[in-house]
Every structure is written in structure tokens, then in C-alpha cells.
Amino acid sequence: MRYLLRRVWVVGFAAILSSCASTDRPIPSVPKLLSESTGQSGRACIRQSQINGYGILDDDVISIDAGRRYYLATVVPRCNDLELSMQAIFKSASSELCGKRMDKVITREESCYISDIFEFANRKEAFAAFEAAVEQRKKIKAELKK
What we know:
With 146 residues, this protein is α+β, with helices and mostly antiparallel strands. The chain has helices at residues 2-23, 30-38, 123-145, and strands at 45-47, 53-57, 61-66, 69-76, 89-91, 96-98, 104-106, 111-120.
């Protein structure tokens, strides 16, 4: 009898845990949402000589102007100095920066690996994709709070 009660308690406790776990889904990252919305793998490459300028967006996303094309690059792990730094150096083993490699963005205080790079036809497309990903994350967060 004691064995049966213990088993019922364990099964009930496991059911409670699994129901809690199924509603607690992780919030997708901006790179994951960009990949899903654009159909890109995040492995785009940029010739360093074509980089005209860059800017730092929220969620550790770097916008990069490369003349005819525009790129969004994400860094991992979180690069705290990136938003405050006035200058950054892009470092690669070749003449190109590529996503999903060991390429880096170096600031005065930190060296951060570039996680993903997404390519767009122009600045407007890139910023629209970024804003859509941020909005989607906000919606998911709001749903999870309910």
C-alpha cells in the first residue's frame, strides 16, 4: 500500500512539473527570429574593405553599411562595452567577416565574437527586419506573463 501511495505521489508530482514546463517556453533570440523571418542562416560574409560605417542597435546587434548592401551582425556573448565604445575594429582571419565563424568585433575594453551576419539589399530592409524581430520578442514575452 505504501508503495502504491508513493507511486501515485511521484506520478502526480511529475504531471504537475511537466504542465509547468510546457507553458514555460524559452524566448527566441533576435538572431533566431531574424533567421526565421529572412530565411537566412546567419552565415553571410562582408568584405572588410567595403565597410563604410556601423551602428549599434539594441540586443547586441550591429548594423553595417557596406555600400551596395546592408548587414545586421549579432555578437555573443553579451558585449557590454559595445554600446559605449566610440570605435570598434572588425577582425577576421581573412579579408571577409562571416557569421558562424571566429570573427570578432574588438572595442577598447572587450573582444566579442560575431555570432550571425544577415545580408539585406538596403538599410530600410535591414531595419524593418530588426524591428519586426524585436516586436515579435515583445509579444512572446507579454504572452508568457499572462
